[in-house]
Amino acid sequence: MATKSSPRIPQKTLAIEEEQTRIQDTLSFPILLSERIRRAVDETRLFKSDCAEVGNKVVVISQMLRSAVRLATSGGGAAAFYDRPFHHIADDVTKNMEKALILVKKCRRRNFLCRVVTIVSAADFRKIFALLDSSVADMKWVLSICGGGIVLTLPPIASNDPILSWVWSFIASLHFGQLQDKIDSASELASLAKDNDRNKQIIVEEGGISPLLKLLKDNSSPEAQIAAATALYNLANSEERVGRIIDDLGIPIIVQGLADSPMRVQIKVANLVATMAKYSPLAQDDFARENVIRPLVTLLSFDIFPDDPMIRIGKQTFHSIVQINKEMEKNTNRVGSSVVSSKVWNNRRERENEKPEVKLELKISCAEALWMLAQGSVANSRRISETKGLLCLAKLVETEHGELQSNCLMTIMEITAAAESNVDLRRVAFKMSSAAAKAVVDQLLRLIQESDNSWLRIPAIRAIGSLARTFPARESRVLRPLVEQLSHGNQDVAAEAACSLGKFACPDNYLCVEHCKSIIEFKGVPPLLRLLKGHERAQLHGLILLCYLGLHVGKSEALEQSRVLNVLEGADRALIAQHPELKELISKAMYHLNVFHSGVLTQRQSYTP
Q: pLDDT confidence of 462, banded at 50, 70, 90?
């Protein structure tokens, strides 16, 4: 006969029971001490009235400790009980009660020798009274913060560090308070976290992340979600603290908040996604697994393509957000689909009626989040490309200005950098027959040629350089603008142009010879020589590009007329010492130039710096 298996106990229930046991263990020892003190007081022969006073104070503390135990184990149990201050205060109470017990025991000794050796004075009792009074005040305070409101008074235990007591009070209010108390507490924690890293660490160590995530998850109040998201954003400026948010299962909650919340909430949540992805590669991966890129692209694309049936925002927005809701609610108790649908449509209607500046702020936040998610991540760059993200980004680069345009451009730059390192992504996302790839390249070239802002021109040049292996031979519309930038008055722009042209001219590029011919044809040598007189980065990339030209088109008259061989011979030796790889490259380039310019194959001595 088969035995009936015992029912599986949910993990959350086990965690609650474990927490209940832990807080009971913490509080039980001082309760036992209070009983020992009471018995010792009954046996005293000296300072009986003072010992009785000690006993009275200990009884008060004991009653408060028992109240704490009942609070921890009743109602919602540990799931709703904030135990961190109780652990701190119970440790301090235990130390004070141990001192009280030692003093009371001294007063029960009867023989004369012990009375002579053991000297007890009124001053000893005054010290113990002060310690026990502090414990009474600490216990009274810690029980008061469980009432739900914000308590700003300082308990004796935190007199030297008021931040600690404020953090305890605010976090307790997140656990026990009414909605407005929770909003106020989250706002206060956000303010404290913004002040300095020490405050951030205290909030994290004292258990502030979990109740903030719970408040963010409660979509009944946008104000509460905004306060929670802001506090988490202010905490998430280090990899370690982002890791704590991840460990508390925050990623699914954050993605859910992005998918089905009002626009004001989505702005804060998108900012949170951006800062977490910025500081933690693990967050980048986890966000991608939770499909955060789709709602980000959806929100960024809102109202951009009203006439394009392939990427029209409307029902497609609705269906993609509903799909995310379904994925997020898998294996959990779900609300009816009609309720979810109604909420999403209401949010969409609210989005359409929102103020333009709010819509703009949301797009800025979403673009920054995509930028941080794409940074250094081939997988995320591929996901953005697969969601029509490239076309959306190109359109915004074309039509927008300021921070939104900049964030979209930086996202494109990161995606092209990923494509440079990954041939599969390069072939799929940036094949020149693709409408998205063509739109991206068009906008990058437009910025290179027309933008007055070097901070836009430089990433555009860098992105074109990352795509160097995707362009066909004699691609004049790409190479000519880059060559023109070698003459730019800003040396950083000129250096970036030399770096990008170097990717066209390097031996790793199958079409390097054709590209080198185009660079010379577009009169790139004279400005390149001038670049060698610039700052270190300009000299470095200028010298590398000059060597590539010498290697691949050494017989060019333009190189001979510009005395490139002499230029390489006189290259800055300090620069070569800092970049040893230049030595061999310069030697090879000089050898090729010498062969073609002398007309005979000579065994010219290798260049020695």
A: very high
**Long-range CB contacts (within 8 A, 24+) of 94-99:** 94/29, 94/30, 94/33, 96/128, 96/131, 96/132, 96/134, 96/135, 97/30, 97/33, 97/34, 97/37, 97/58, 97/61, 97/132, 97/135, 98/33, 99/128, 99/131
**Both tokens assigned to 535:** 């700052």
For residue 608, pLDDT beyond 80: no
- Token reading at 133: 């009074």
Q: State which amino acid sits at residue 228.
A: A
- Angle ∠(377,379,383) on CA atoms, nearest 5: 115
Q: How would DSSP label each residue in 429-470?
A: H--TT-HHHHHHHHHHHHHHHH---HHHHHHHHHHHHHTGGG
Q: What mean pLDDT comes out for the span 540-558?
A: 85
Write the CA distances from 491 to 474, 486, 532, 533, 560, integer angstroms.
26, 8, 11, 10, 25
Residues 36-44, mean pLDDT to the nearest whole number: 88
**Cut 0.70: pTM above it:** yes
Q: What is the pLDDT of residues 52-63, one digit of tens each?
A: 999 999 999 999
Residues 477-497 pLDDT 10s: 899 999 999 989 899 999 999
The residues near 591 (Cβ < 8 Å, ≥ 6 apart) are 604, 606
Q: CA-CA distances (angstroms) from residue 408 to 263, 293, 371, 392?
A: 20, 14, 7, 9
Residues in the chain: 609
Share of the chain above pLDDT 90, in %: 46
Q: What is d(CA 462, CA 479) in angstroms, rounded to the nearest whole number?
A: 13
pLDDT band at residue 219 using 50, 70 and 90 as cut-offs: confident
Cα→Cα distances 63→31, 88, 320, 517, Å? 9, 18, 56, 90
Contacts 24+ apart (CB under 8 A), 202-207: 202/163, 202/164, 202/167, 203/167, 203/171, 203/231, 203/235, 204/235, 204/241, 204/244, 206/84, 206/85, 206/164, 206/167, 206/168, 206/171, 207/82, 207/84, 207/171
| CA pair distance 597, 584, nearest whole angstrom | 20
How far is 105 from 125, CA to CA, in rounded Å? 13
Q: Please give the pLDDT value at position 150.
A: 81
Summarize the confidence of residues 270-278 as an average pLDDT: 96
The three-state secondary structure class of 208 is: coil
Dihedral of CA atoms 286, 289, 294, 297 in degrees, nearest 10, equals 30
| Tokens (6 digits) for 377 | 């991540």
CA distance 476 to 12: 64
Task: Give the C-alpha separation, 486 to 471, whole Å.
Answer: 20
3-state secondary structure (DSSP) of residue 57: helix
Task: Determine the Cα–Cα distance for residues 476 and 517; give it in Å rounded to an integer.
Answer: 11
Q: Rounded to an integer, what distance in angstroms lies between the CA atom of residue 504 and that of residue 516?
A: 8
Cβ distance 513 to 519 under 8 Å? no
| Alpha carbons 155 and 143: distance in angstroms, whole number | 11
Tell me, what's the pLDDT at 203?
96
For range 491-520, the mean pLDDT: 91
